[in-house]
Sepiapterin reductase
Amino acid sequence: MSSSGGDLGRALCVVTGASRGFGRAVAVDLSRLVRPGSVLVLVARSVDDLRALQAELARPEAGGTGLTVKCVEADLAQTDGVERAVKASEEAAAAAEIEHMVLVNNAASLGDVSRCAQSFTRMAEVDSYLSFNVSSALCLTARLLQAFPRRPGLRRTVVNVSSLCAVQPYPTWVLYCSGKAARDMMFRVLAEEEPDIRVLSYAPGPLDTAMQTEARSTTADPKMKQMISDLFAQGRLLSCEESSAKLMKLLLEDKFTSGSHVDIYDV
Ligand SMILES: NC(=O)c1ccc[n+]([C@@H]2O[C@H](COP(=O)([O-])OP(=O)(O)OC[C@H]3O[C@@H](n4cnc5c(N)ncnc54)[C@H](OP(=O)(O)O)[C@@H]3O)[C@@H](O)[C@H]2O)c1
């Protein structure tokens, strides 16, 4: 099998927010697309959920033979959480002859969507949101790219899990929209700077996850709230598995323009 064909090669895959929702589905799919000798690093705060996924992937039916799965309990809102994720990735990959480094920056939070932009007067509150949702994604990416520098035979792919909110303003979603827009631009800059790195911002569509439930119950803007409630009531939410499959298709085909924002509905 060629590593540019039906699989991602012997890879180190780091997935943030792998304990539930979209990140979990992505981790499962990646485990099926890598070659024996690969390493999958699962990062989140809920280590029990990560361990449950690790156990699931170890079952023979999961087909992950020859795959090392490492759980990293880390709060990515904290500097030491980012460091822990990097250190664990370096240790896990040390003995493996990795030919592909895949980082999926998936972890994120919705922020307070119960208020308008003009109510955000406390810098500490805004900083705290941006620290986790923007800064940690850049710092984790930068640290991993340094830890796995350019060398012959090593492919490097960085995915930013984005949103329609990166390109579309939604009332009462100022933190989330700003964070997603900033992340998209960060990864566009990275793609400009490093042509050898494959960079993708993927908007996964409206997913049936905990974040979506939170959005349904806490969004203040009445039109936005109605739109989100309709998606749910009309059965128009997508499953994480369906959306992750589209992301895998993009990664396997490897034809996307590096740095681009690709929406699930474009795939
Ligand atoms: N749901 C949607 O409709 C939708 C639409 C467009 C884009 N997205 C994007 O898709 C991605 C996944 O969303 P989701 O719906 O699956 O969300 P979710 O169900 O809320 O899951 C979020 C994940 O992030 C992790 N996380 C949260 N805070 C963390 C922290 N401080 N440190 C480390 N990990 C943290 C959570 O794990 P722990 O709590 O265990 O730490 C969890 O695994 C996000 O980037 C989101 O913005 C979602």
